[in-house]
Amino acid sequence: MADAPLFEQLGLIGCGLMGGSFALALKRAGLVRRVVGYSKSPSTTERARQMGVIDVEAPSALLAVSGADIVLIAVPVAATEATFKAIRHLVTPEMLIMDVGSTKRDVVDAARSVLREQVGSFVPAHPIAGREVAGVEHADPDLYLGKPVILTPIERTRTAQLQRAAAVWTAIGCQVSKMSPDAHDAAFAAVSHLPHVLAFALVNGIAAQPQGQEFLSLAGPGFRDFTRIAASDPKVWRDILMTNRTELLAQSQAFRDALQAFEQAIARGDADALERLIEQASTLRSRWRMSAGKPHL
Amino acid sequence: MADAPLFEQLGLIGCGLMGGSFALALKRAGLVRRVVGYSKSPSTTERARQMGVIDVEAPSALLAVSGADIVLIAVPVAATEATFKAIRHLVTPEMLIMDVGSTKRDVVDAARSVLREQVGSFVPAHPIAGREVAGVEHADPDLYLGKPVILTPIERTRTAQLQRAAAVWTAIGCQVSKMSPDAHDAAFAAVSHLPHVLAFALVNGIAAQPQGQEFLSLAGPGFRDFTRIAASDPKVWRDILMTNRTELLAQSQAFRDALQAFEQAIARGDADALERLIEQASTLRSRWRMSAGKPHL
User: B-chain residues within 8 Å CB-CB of A201?
Assistant: First the structure.
């Protein structure tokens, strides 16, 4: 696989943790000859070149794309549409363009409206990988190793691009699966975005009470684990929650219904019904094992 | 402290993990001369004696109390009132009686109505300690070491008993604090019981959807930590939630209000308001550190 590079030139837009790690992984695997990088902050771009994450600094997103046969857009989700606009004049039918965003409906909509007839070059991608820390200093060729990557092609996505996208993620050690953008967003609203909102709301709901600080001082390991995600970065999560708001609000309603079933059993003193509800959750959760994205290949 | 025993005889009612560990800790610290134990299941009582957790098997709760100057009731919360009834005829004004239940209002109510004029001998206690596993086989003299214990005395609790209760938990390495039964139950509804219900409801709410299993298969480390407590024992949590239902439903309402603030900001597209809400939770959670019960000494 690594004897001949899959690609001549990677145009990397966003030289942070996610983008920089992708560049390093491709280089190490011998999958690309040259990486041309651009970041909004010139000092980041320079740092990426000094670290050998990229080979050439580009002064704009457009120039990072010029001459590339593979492009990775690794910018905050809110900046994806502006990036499409910045590069659209140099997108070709042969180019493979991917993103790494954690929501997909919005990215697909932006790609359709901005890239238009070239939308088939774009393969939306969501690698389930990350770190507590950000920035090119933490770029790591192993970041994606063994991690799931979900591709969310649309009808107009070109088959050749989709196959090359799957090949490149597989070649750097990922387990690739495919879903529709809507199913992806519903799934992540349910298992990631909503739990963040619930953890945020629990903390705020306690803090709003006169004895809230006293209550928090008594919290133990269950609270610690349950609210770990409540310490997440506000700007990052503001963007994710806003971007996926339709699916998120639908999941929040499904959750409220499930919560109400508990409240009603408790309020009417129905211990048997309550035990059945707990039993259902406990059995499901005990059987659940974190997958590496295998079920959707 | 350990030169002379604090107590002549511990009457242990419930020789499981919590009770057995208390007996072992007292013995090791030289705080008691003799332990007389009773469990509902005779094989448990026998096992406890064979393991040296208790010295003498009692054929009933009443006979375990006979001659004791300290009594620990370490039975499921739902069985506490029946235990008071079983022992009340041998409770004396000099005796120190404690429980280990994770709710306190109900225990205090039961103590008042059953023990009547002897209610002053009872010091309600909630040691914040436990294991994933139950049973006397797992009894461990270190179970309580360094753990918080909350005592929830009422007006009629005798000062002498309260002081001896604080002394014995302190002597086995606990950090003792005091709260009213109502404040205790509100605090644990907020930081423990409600999070359990939310984790149960999240799992059930996802499972109720046609694509629920697919969603669950995509869940990652955030979901894993958030729902860890959803795997808890159904009968134990049925009893805890039912017992503390007034405070729990009040906390659930406070949570719904906090959740609604998020939903409204998201629904109206108010990114600034959403960011402020997340910022509040994130700052609080980042600063929070698990205490060892120090704030309420």
Answer: 255, 258-259, 261-262, 281
